[in-house]
Structure formats: structure tokens, C-alpha cells
Request: fold
Amino acid sequence: MPLNADLKYQLPESLHAILQARLDSLSPEARWVALLASVVGRTFWVGAVLAEARTTTGTGMLNLSSNKLENSVTQGLSELVRAELAFPRLGSLFSGEQEYIFKHSLLREVAYELLPHKYRKQYHMAVAHWLVTYAGADFMATIAEHLEKAGATSEAVKQYEQAAHYARSRGALDEARWMQ
Reply:
């Protein structure tokens, strides 16, 4: 789902400030995990967040060695759950991957808004590559969207074409037209 660039102008200022304050009150690890998870979407997976976390070198976002990275993500997720900002979901779309959901889509959008613009492309690319590895055909449009946001236009076009073909094969003609 595309993010609205003018979110802060559509949300009442007080609600935006409350959500941002909740995120700002977290430990650096939990805030970092929330920002990375926001790139994935309202629903996110530990593996996708870890894929992004591994690309944070040079971004100033908790530059940790790989052996400390998983622990920091796990601790950050635990804090998000304790703060009731995200919740683990029973079951997962991906086998062996813990799935989480942000409490509210507005919280996810505020977290995304806090992510520095100059790093968003690399995070979207990491999510796209993770989804290519773990997701099935139902996620082709999502992969294409992440590729598009990563600036990989030609790859995104190919992925949208494949997603449209898949949608047509399922009889989802409106969905297929949207992707062309």
C-alpha cells in the first residue's frame, strides 16, 4: 500500500505528536526496529527487519556487529510488544518466520515518516530481496512496489508485469489492469 507523503498534514497535529512521542520514548534499539519494520508494512516479519538491519552500515542507525544485530532486533521487538505498539501474530504467512503487526496503521506511517529519506531506498531494496527469497507469487506486486521505492524501476516494471500476469491467471482482472 503506497504511503501518503502528506500524512503529517492530514493527521491532527496532536495525534501525530502523540504517536511520535511514543516512538521517541523507546530505547534506541526499539525505535530503530520500529522504523525498519515500518518499511515492510503494517504487518512485518523478523527476517525482513533483519535483512534491512544488515544494510544499516554507514547510516548511523545502531551500527552493530552481526552477532549483536539479532539480539538487538529481538530486544527491540520485545520492547515494542511491551509498549503495545506492535503485536506478534499467531501463525505466519512465511514458514519459520515470526509475524508482527503494528497496533495501528497510523503508528506505522508515523514511524516511516521518521525514517531518514536518504536511506529509504536501501531499506526498500533489502525488503524486496527478502520477499523474493521467502514470498510466493501472491507477493509479486508487493515486491514490485518495494523495488519501485528502491529506485530499481526496470526491475519493478518486470515484477509488475509478472504480477499482472499472475493476477490475470487467477481471474483478478481489475488487479491486473492496475498493475499494467
